Amino acid sequence: MAFFFRVATLDDVPALVALEQQCFRSDRLSPRSLRWMISRANGQLWLVQQHGQLLGYGLVLFRRGTRLARLYSIAIAEHARGMGLGHLLLEHIEACALANNCAYLRLQVRTDNPGALALYERNGYQRFAWVDDYYEDHTAALCLEKPLAPASAVASSSRTSGNTRLPKYSTSS
């Protein structure tokens, strides 16, 4: 099966809204938020398609002044689950973060989403915080992080460039 990855455009907003409706009960990205993420955010919204059909997306944001990226959202269409797209999107987002000089990728995941948590942990993400009442419906979130480069490369980079600043975790980032 051949999958096609590309950066979203404003023309993709209706399909993205439909995918949000299908995948999430709450905390959905609105059409306005999606338009902002596509046109103005310091990040990238990547689509995965097959035969022109949207199968999923991953949204990564970059934090200015740090080498930290945040996986803001990832969604896979119901009919496309079990095809390994979550793993492929994660790999793609990680490569995108590395290309933007990020050393770490962080994310939040609902505590009642064991499938997503297993995906992240299988791919090397480690838990580092728990945030009560994080989501709109008051569900808690687990915070995970993955170094994107070997620890020696991250340490070397911070010594030579002074650029490896990681902000203290906060729910407002």
Short description:
By secondary structure, the protein is an alpha+beta fold.
Question: How would you characterize this protein structure?
Answer:
With 173 residues, the protein is of the alpha+beta class. The protein has one domain: Aminopeptidase. It is 32% helix and 29% strand. The chain has five helices and seven strands; from the N terminus they run E-H-H-E-E-E-H-E-H-E-E-H. Strands 1-2-3-4-5-7-6 form a seven-stranded mixed beta sheet, with helices on both faces. Strand 3 (53-62) and strand 4 form a beta hairpin. The termini are far apart.
Question: Can you give keywords for this protein?
Answer:
disordered C terminus, Aminopeptidase, alpha+beta, seven-stranded mixed β-sheet, 7 strands, 173 residues, globular
Count of structural domains = 1
Query: Strand content of the residues, in percent?
Result: 25-35%
Helix content: 25-40%
Q: In CATH terms, what is the fold-level topology?
A: Aminopeptidase
Mean pLDDT: 89
Structural class: alpha+beta
Sequence of strands across the biggest β-sheet: 1-2-3-4-5-7-6
Oligomer: single chain
Stretches with pLDDT under 50, minimum 5 residues: 154-173
Question: At CATH's second level, what is the architecture?
Answer: 3-Layer(aba) Sandwich
Rough outline: globular
- N-C termini distance: 36 Å
CATH level-4 homologous superfamily: Gcn5-related N-acetyltransferase (GNAT)
Question: How would a crystallographer describe the biggest sheet?
Answer: 7 strands, mixed
Task: Please provide the count of β strands.
Answer: 7
Helix and strand sequence: EHHEEEHEHEEH
CATH class: Alpha Beta
